[in-house]
Every structure is written in C-alpha cells, then in structure tokens.
C-alpha cells in the first residue's frame, strides 16, 4: 500500500485515511493503523474501518454524489468491535484523492442525546442476557443484491465480513473457550461454505432476505459439526446487503430423536408387514385407521377398500365395534369370534383379540386368526 507523506507533525495524533474515487481506502497513517489494529497493506473496504452508515456517507462524498460538511460525525470500528464516535473533516487532494481526518469526541459533543445512548445500552443488555443465541454478520464488503442468485450466494461467503454483537449464548453454543470474544473470530470458522449452508443462503435470497427455521450445519470452535436452525433478517441499503442477523438453535438432539423414532417406526412396519395374521387399528367409533398387508390378503380387499370405513362394513356379526371395545376394556384375556365377509361375499369366522392403545384419543389394536370350518358354520348360523 502506498503511503503519502504528511510533513505536519500535528497530524500524527489524528487518524487519517485516504479514499479513492471508487470508495476504497488505499492508505492510512501510522496512528490510525496502530489505534485500530490494522495492517496497512493493500486496499481496504470502507466498512473495515467505518460503520455501514458512515461508510455509505464517505463513499457518496468520494464519488461526488454528496457534498461534505466542514465537519461531520462518523463511527469507527474499534479492535474490540464496538463503534467509537468521531468528528471528521475531508480534504480533497488531486494526487491522493480524499483525505478523511478524524478526531475522537464524546457523544455529548456529537449531539447524541442521552435517550439514544440509553436505548442502545438497554438493547445491548437484552441481547447479552438472552438465553437464545443471537448473532450478526456485518459485511465489510457489502453484497450487491442485484447480482445473479448464485453470485450473491458466493459473495456472502467470500466477501469480507465479521461477527457483530454476538451474545454469550452464541459463544456457549459454539463452545468458544472462556475469555475468547466470539466477535473477534473469523465468520468462516463457524459458518463454513458448504453445500447445505449454500442452499440455506439460496433459500434466504429467494425469500427476500427474511427466513425462519432454516437448517444449517455449522462448526463449533473445536471443528466438530453442529446442526442448527436459524431465523434470518437482513439490512439492505441502496441495493447492498450490509448485514445479516438473527437467532440460532441447536437442533442436533431433536434430529437425533426424530431419526430414532423414524427407525423404530420402520422396524415396527417391517414386523407388521411380515406378520401372517391380520392386524388393524380402529377408532372409538369403529373406523379402520390402519391395516397390515395380511389384512388385504385375508379378506380380499385392498387397503383403499378397507381404510376409512367402519369395520362393521366387513363383519356380519351385529354390533361388532361395541363388542371389540368391550373385550378391550373389560376382559384382559378375552377373545371374540366374528363372521367376516370377504370381497367375493364368502363368509368365514375369525377369532379377534382387542387391546386399547394409550393416548389422548382412544384407539384399538385388533388381531385376527381364522377359525376352523366346523366352528365357522355354527357361528354363521348364530349371526343370521
């Protein structure tokens, strides 16, 4: 980075940087570099030193889109990622562009009312005390939202950015060591450029930069993966994405439990499918809610012809649902023989067992086994 020489010794106690016509910082003096902890090499985005609002103002002045006042307030990003108010003046130089000279002043001098200071303090305390992880990513190089979707996604991961205002809950979630400020850590360390995270950002762009319950796979401080769910919001000014912020939750345990339940359900389904005897689930009113494949084979009806219909529709014995409920509630070891009607209108007697399923809604599990022919004939006569 080239560095213009200033002979005035008094300027050594002031922060000075030089901005080119495109709104990039191409030089800073030693005092500013030292105070802000910046290594003065190469071109810098304005947002690396200034707050988003101040950066936009300086960019407009550098481009000649706005006239600068004799002096005006700006906010500087400190090494601890808090913003410091300063008063700035600009001097145009034909060789070095726009010199921005700054001096720290108190909020009183800058005319910041005590109410505003108090409001910022309250909001900071609320975020800091929140049990839910709160985060903010500020783009030192704002992302042009007019670009193609994939280009926006790429730049969200590649443009210079930093964490801002992340609270203690966020640090705990990502297991940041005690005493280490999360806000000073690289964004990419915890929010890596991966396929699933790219898809989440793609969804964010498609939802106009407002997205809830977005799943991502981030990394903890030790490099281990963590499955999280994010709620996103964005700040966009003049078509530029300045910052993203939101909350995040660890959904790893929930997903693990969901997978365990899914595995158990698959196992139970396999067992029920392999069982040779019909198994049904009916509602309190006798409606068939579920049936295994053996049910279809036993009575010659497809699942579509069984599910959603009253079980009485397939049984010639009167008040079948009432009798099945009775043996489930009153007779632990009870069995019930019922005459079944197959699709071809043939009759057979099946021995049923019925059990009550626990839950808010009463349901009954029925198991059935075909009776012998002699027994079948006698019960058929009783049903008539």
Automatic annotation (TrEMBL):
Residues in the signal sequence: none
Record InterPro entries: PAS, PAS-like_dom_sf, PAS_fold
SUPFAM superfamilies registered for this protein in UniProt: PYP-like sensor domain (PAS domain)
Classification via SMART domains: PAS (SM00091)
Source organism superkingdom: Bacteria
Domain PAS intervals: 264-310
Protein name stated in the entry: PAS domain-containing protein
